[in-house]
């Protein structure tokens, strides 16, 4: 119990309330001492007035008056004359004198604490002002022992009452915390445990119901996190299934393409000039398809190969990309512009750069052809001291807002209806493998611009 939130609230509340009562205890005891002494002075004044009214009383009556007043002698000053009214033998001499006329609070507190910590019996003289203007000053001598005993008794009653109030207050707070905090928190914990058992089950996502604002905000944040996690797990499962299917298809396709490579020698020996001119392109296409299938199988084994870096002519790679895309364009009015400097060499993997640029150009070509309007796709390049920068520009309609938010996320960043969004994800992974980056520089009605940055340094990050 005491390790729980409500149990600790119970203990802390009891302690804090008790401390507050203790702070009140000191001035309360000082006030009680003041009232005690003033009451003794009032009794002494009544006894003195009795004597003054009777002129003469016997010794027994005088002793009774002093005993009822709780004092040993009474001195009353009237008309500037100090007169001993009543007196009795004192067991010990007077050791302390207290003037109760306009005594400051701190002095009263100090005297009260001093009396509590002084167990020795003493005779004290108390000076005060008579009530109802019955004189100028009244003095009474009394024993300190009854005063101290009364103060201790009062203090114990105050402490007992403080303890009862503390426990009662703490119990109420304990019940309130149980209802308002602990029970809702326990419900959230149970939801979390239930969700952890089957995070793919959307029915286990928490539904905010707390009336306390802070708890409801926590529930809403937990609901958002669980919703995103469930969606991510479902997408991951779909990707795993898709990866398994692609790996199987790639395995069989690789075997088919390997057989197709065996026929390329005969095609190259053809006497037809058009066939001889297209044969190298066909051979390169088949070789790239086999390489892609092998890479897909490697990816299915979570073993993406590092790029094989070499110095290559970027213009040759761009020319191969444009040649492949021109075949897909046919008679459509789409222009490919190569603005790469012919002598510009870059460091990279030729196959991976071909795939990266091919995906960007293919995306641009499909978007432009989807509009039914003429278009232009331009690849340019430049370099600085640290990087080679490749720019792919088109005059298409640009990316919609939703696609911009999930640009490089698989199955989420497609720019056209029916697109998977895998193209840009592949581009990003390939360029990151070179230690570079790919960024969307601008997009809109005037077109879209992507920039690929390849570092000139030798450090290459692995994906």
UniProtKB/TrEMBL annotation:
InterPro entries reported in the protein's UniProt record: HATPase_C_sf, HATPase_dom, His_kinase_dom, HisK_dim/P_dom, HisK_dim/P_sf, Sig_transdc_His_kin-like_C
Q: Which residues cross the membrane?
A: 6-30, 158-181
**Which residue intervals define the domain Histidine kinase in the entry?**
248-458
| Annotated catalysed reactions | ATP + protein L-histidine = ADP + protein N-phospho-L-histidine
User: Which top-rank group of organisms is this from?
Assistant: Bacteria
Keyword check for Cell wall biogenesis/degradation: no
The record's annotation in PANTHER family points to: SENSOR HISTIDINE KINASE (PTHR43065), TWO-COMPONENT SENSOR PPRA (PTHR43065:SF42)
Name of protein:
histidine kinase
């Amino acid at each position: 119990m005491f390790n729980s939130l409500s149990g600790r609230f119970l203990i802390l509340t009891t302690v804090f309330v008790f401390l507050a009562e203790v702070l009140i205890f000191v001035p309360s005891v000082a006030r009680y001492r003041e009232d005690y002494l003033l009451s003794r002075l009032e009794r002494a004044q009544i006894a003195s007035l009795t004597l003054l009214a009777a002129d003469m009383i016997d010794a027994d009556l005088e002793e009774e008056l002093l005993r009822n007043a709780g004092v040993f002698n009474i001195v009353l000053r009237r008309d500037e004359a100090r007169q001993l009214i009543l007196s009795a033998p004192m067991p010990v001499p007077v050791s302390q004198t207290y003037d109760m006329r306009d005594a400051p609070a701190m002095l009263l507190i100090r005297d009260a604490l001093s009396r509590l910590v002084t167990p020795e019996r003493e005779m004290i003289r108390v000076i005060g002002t008579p009530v109802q203007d019955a004189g100028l000053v009244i003095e009474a001598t009394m024993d300190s022992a009854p005063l101290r005993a009364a103060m201790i008794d009062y203090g114990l009653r105050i402490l007992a009452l403080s303890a009862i109030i503390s426990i009662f207050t703490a119990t109420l707070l304990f019940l309130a915390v149980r209802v308002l905090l602990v029970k809702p928190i326990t419900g959230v914990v149970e939801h979390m445990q239930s969700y952890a058992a089957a995070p793919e089950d959307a029915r286990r996502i928490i539904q905010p119901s707390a009336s306390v604002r802070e708890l409801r905000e926590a529930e809403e944040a937990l609901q958002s996190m669980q919703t995103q996690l469930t969606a991510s797990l479902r997408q991951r499962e779909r990707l795993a299934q898709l990866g398994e299917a692609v790996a199987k298809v790639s395995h069989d396709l690789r075997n088919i393409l390997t057989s197709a490579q065996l026929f390329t020698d005969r095609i190259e020996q053809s006497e037809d000039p058009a066939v001889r001119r297209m044969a190298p392109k066909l051979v390169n296409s088949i070789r790239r398809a086999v390489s892609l299938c092998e890479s897909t199988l490697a990816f299915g084994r979570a073993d993406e190969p590092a790029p094989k870096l070499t110095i290559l002519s970027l213009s040759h790679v761009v020319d191969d990309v444009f040649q492949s895309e021109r075949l897909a364009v046919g008679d459509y009015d789409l222009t490919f512009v190569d603005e790469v400097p012919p002598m510009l060499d870059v460091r990279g993997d030729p196959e991976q750069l071909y795939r990266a640029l091919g995906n960007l150009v293919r995306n641009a070509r499909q978007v432009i052809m989807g509009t039914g309007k003429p278009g232009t796709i331009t690849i340019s390049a430049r370099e600085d001291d640290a990087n080679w920068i490749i720019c792919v520009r088109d005059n298409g309609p640009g990316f919609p807002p939703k696609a911009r938010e999930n640009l490089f996320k698989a199955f989420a960043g497609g720019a056209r209806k029916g697109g998977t969004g895998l193209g840009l994800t592949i581009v990003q992974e390939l360029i990151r493998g070179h230690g570079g980056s790919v960024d969307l520089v601008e997009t809109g009605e005037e077109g879209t611009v992507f920039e690929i940055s390849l570092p000139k340094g030798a450090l290459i990050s692995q994906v």
